[in-house]
Amino acid sequence: MSKPVFVGLDIGASRTKVAVMDVDGALIGYAVKKSGTDFGRTASACLDISLKMAGATRSHVERAVATGYGRANVPFVTKTSKAEIGCLARGCSHYFPGALSIIDIGGQDNKIVKLDAAGRRSSFKMNRKCAAGTGAFLEEMAGRLDIPLEEMNDLARQSEEMVKLGSYCTVFSGTEVLESIRHGKKVSDIVKGIFYSVIKRVLEMDSLTDRVVMTGGVVAHNPYLVRMTEELIGREVLLPKLPQLAGAVGAALYARAGEAAAVPQPLLRRVK
Amino acid sequence: MKEETKLARKKIEATSLMNRIMADYFLDLNQASASNSRKVAWCTSVGPAELLRAMGFAVHFPENHAAMLGATRLATDLIPEANAIGYSPDICSYLTSDLGAYLKGFTPLAKAYPGIAAVPKPDVLVYNTNQCRDVQDWFAWYARELGVPLIGITSPKNVNEVTEAHVEDVTRQLEALVPVLEGIAGAPLDLARLKEVVALSRDCTELWKEVLETATAVPAPLTFFDGTIHMGPAVVLRGTPQAVEYYRVLLAELEQRKATREAAVAGEEYRIYWDGMPVWGRLRPHSELFAGLKTNVVASTYCSSWIFPAFDAEEPLRSMAKAYLELFIVRSDAYKERYLADMTKKFRIDGIVYHDAKTCPYNSNSRYGMPQRLEAETGLPYLVISGDLNDMRCVSDEQTKTNVEAFIEQLEEGK
């Protein structure tokens, strides 16, 4: 491997995602890890994993762009170069050119981003200072039900009679879950209600126009949410191949285009 | 592609003069209270200050005090004190922080101005509900607590066009305040003095308007964040020669900057209109956030709230009534939309930021679809940020930052 590569790092509140792209714009390496408490260390570990997958080393990195909450905490990216909404839009536009409504469900944030026919952002909305409808909400509910997070998708699929949660608040929804347990409701029906709550909270943020794309770790790990969304909006939902990587791919695309703040290679090499 | 840089807004030289004037005001107020040499009135910010001043009262503005609590980032610790005696965390955080400060026996004035131990004790509390009902409840608590008379004006709301009937109503209410105030002051109202004060308020307001309008220049020599500080004299010294003199000095400085194209935000690329209250506890970070993105918040509804074109010395009470009714916050949504559309044209705005303040619905214009309607009319993109004037528990810095950065990137893409 002698050709240069371009790196996008999306340091989210919950997960760190890294995408490595070649000069032709193909995704040739990626990694996802819990962001944890040391963003720099996690990003560095993700970078090494994704470069290895790409058959590259740090010396091949031509440019890197960081985005997400923790982007300022990554020691080898000295410039804060791109807001996450821009990267998300760029990543989705790469896979689905043209007008889009993007629904991104992250660990802490939900977003609806609209792109016009030229792929430019026409508007965006983020959730208020509230965890309702986010990945953090699902984690909280899994804890209440004492089930592993990764089992929720299959449980929701098995539901025969959904339990609806009425509260806007994550903590009060937890109380409603406990109440459902007391009334002998099936866990699978409660989980489906939890999923329904997530989608409802997101859809009430903004109207949807044009084709709809879903991204983020929550849908990547819970494809049942996508089916549920399609049923609710009565339209097909598009998914990138790696929905959790959309922002990181967008950041890598900015790096490849050379539009974002370039990271000098020596800074990348200094990281041990 | 912009790189984020830390840029403070350019310093305004007149600030030191303003600081002296404000210090004199607070020390004079303290003296009046401590020595019982003059009666003290507490007044809402757009209450009948002209009348009080003409009758010789020293005037304290609790809203100004509350803004100081917010700007010094002390309010969030004080609000729970008011919550604990029954005032909801969801109501005006100016109210709850000011009551909280009283309950804790605290004032930032003591630290800022040596010699002042407490806010001046009132002899009368005078409100105008033109801004909200909260001010009346706020003053009512002090009236009960301190055993002080509470009087005021109940203003019409959602006014589309200000009619004769509206003006007549408020004029009559103002007239009804006079005998009560004369009783407390121990002297009759001197009409000639009232005319003088109204004339000074008129001069003050005209100069303040000119100050704000220097920001119609490209690049703008002034920011919204400067405005929130420099409106101090227009709030607490309306009707005095000091305020008029100050704005002459400030205006001269800004005109000079305008002439030499000296930008308040270096490399100004984008011009934003700010609707709603400032987030007092985040003035500096917000100023730096926008400046770092080569963006100037050049105009706002908030700072323009101290422009009162109706003041007329020949008809003092009637013109005061009209001035207090023409305020943006008193008006209907239809009026507000027209006003905002005009302002965005006048200041050559690229986008609008609406601050949805959790505890101030009256100053939050993003809740009934106005941003969407205005975007459809003007084509200007908008952003709504959640926050609050004083309660920093309602503010998420990271979300604000992400939103603002993404919004400026959107403007960049749209150019």
Automatic annotation (TrEMBL), chain A:
Q: Name one GO molecular function term.
A: iron-sulfur cluster binding
This protein's UniProt keywords = Iron, Iron-sulfur, Metal-binding
Instruction: Kindly name one Pfam family recorded for this protein.
Output: BcrAD_BadFG
What cofactors does the UniProt entry give for this protein? [4Fe-4S] cluster
Q: What InterPro entries does the annotation carry?
A: ATPase_BadF (IPR002731), ATPase_NBD (IPR043129), CoA_E_activase_dom (IPR008275), Dehydratase_Activator_Redct (IPR051805)
Superkingdom, natural source: Bacteria
Which residue ranges does the record assign to the ATPase BadF/BadG/BcrA/BcrD type domain?
Answer: 7-255
Where are its TM segments located? none
The protein in question is named (R)-2-hydroxyacyl-CoA dehydratase-radicalizing ATPase
UniProtKB/TrEMBL annotation, chain B:
Which Gene Ontology molecular-function terms are recorded?
A: iron-sulfur cluster binding; metal ion binding
- Keyword Iron-sulfur set for record: yes
One Pfam family matching this protein: HGD-D
Record key words, sorted: Iron, Iron-sulfur, Metal-binding
Q: Which residues form the signal peptide?
A: none
Q: Which family does it belong to?
A: Belongs to the FldB/FldC dehydratase alpha/beta subunit family.
Protein name, per record: (R)-2-hydroxyacyl-CoA dehydratase
